Amino acid sequence: AEKVGPSVVGIRTTAATRGMFGLQQQSGEGSGIVYTKDGYIVTNYHVIQNAVDQSSKKVASGAKIEVVLPSKKDEPYEAQVVGYDSRTDLAVIKIEASNLPAAEWGNSDNLKVGELAVAIGNPGGLEYMGSVTAGVISGLNRTIETENGKILKLIQTDAAINPGNSGGPLIDYQGQVIGVTTAIIEQAQGIGFAIPSSTAKAVGDQIISHGRPLRLGVLGGSLTPALAKSIEEQVGLDLAVNRGAFITRVLPDTPAAAAGLAEGDVITAVNGQEIAGMRELRDAVQQAGFGGKLQLSYYRGPSQQQVEVTL
What number of H helices and E strands is found in the chain? Predict the structure, then answer.
């Protein structure tokens, strides 16, 4: 707690919303993690979402994002949006400051169930800034669907996590960040979740370097035999396979669009390795990185095809 506490900041957002009585101020509070000593901060996208202009991807007109450092609680810094990724619920913001205490990041891929897990954040708002709770790693690779239909692969912990903790760190016994706390199941007791540090660090680096996360540019899901049968019966598509990443939409101006992928295609292998679904496809994209190339094998109806995609 002594090691990581100075790296955990408070985040306050204010935004103008139009209601029954005209424009009103809407506010929110959450947590963040000092990522670099020169002012980059990682948090959850949903912590800053109400202050972001969706078209410009910057702070909206009339809105404000403030960062409160533990050492300067009465002197908030105004922050700018560097970039965000709604799919992983991650965002990077920036304040004009130097010599900040950046947190040390660990490798979530090496976690085991039962290990110590400590959460630091601002449960209930900045009034309880820097609160520390402890528990264990309760589960790994938990799949949670958000209210807007996004699928997150998360760490489960029984360390007490409340809404104001969102964006704060989950740390291990060495004081390394192993996750970014992001969600709770309100109707359950003692179940909290965090984005794995391996995901958060990769997305954070991509946003800082390129202003956006790495994308192939497809939406869809994992094809199962039952889903394949249902699609064939209801939509009339002859899928030819019943395993893989099923594409429901190709986003314009993306690597997938440039490669000619289309709605209804089923990607079955990446670089010669078979994949079971969308998760493996996303993992392969992240491993390839910006500028990387992927050899995709896919079915379009009964026809098997291959294409090379440059990310």
Answer: 5, 21
Spatial distance between the Cα atoms of 182 and 43, rounded to a whole number of angstroms: 9
Annotated catalytic residue within 7, 31, 85, 89: 89
* Among 7, 31, 46, 297, the one annotated catalytic: 46
**How many angstroms separate the CA atoms of 170 and 182, rounded?**
10
Question: At 93, phi and psi to the nearest 5?
Answer: -120, 165
Catalytic residue among 7, 166, 197, 297: 166
107-156 per-position pLDDT tens digit: 999 999 999 999 999 987 888 899 999 999 999 988 887 766 677 889 99
Give the chain's radius of gyration (CA, Å). Answer: 21
- 166 carries an active-site annotation: yes
Q: What are the residues whose beta carbons fall under 8 Å from the beta carbon of 236, sequence distance 6 or more? A: none
Q: How remote is the C-alpha of 19 from its chain's centroid? A: 30
Which residues, in sequence order, are CB contacts of 81 under 8 Å at separation 6+? Answer: 48, 52, 57, 58, 59, 65, 91, 92, 93
User: Does the pTM of the predicted model rise above 0.85?
Assistant: no
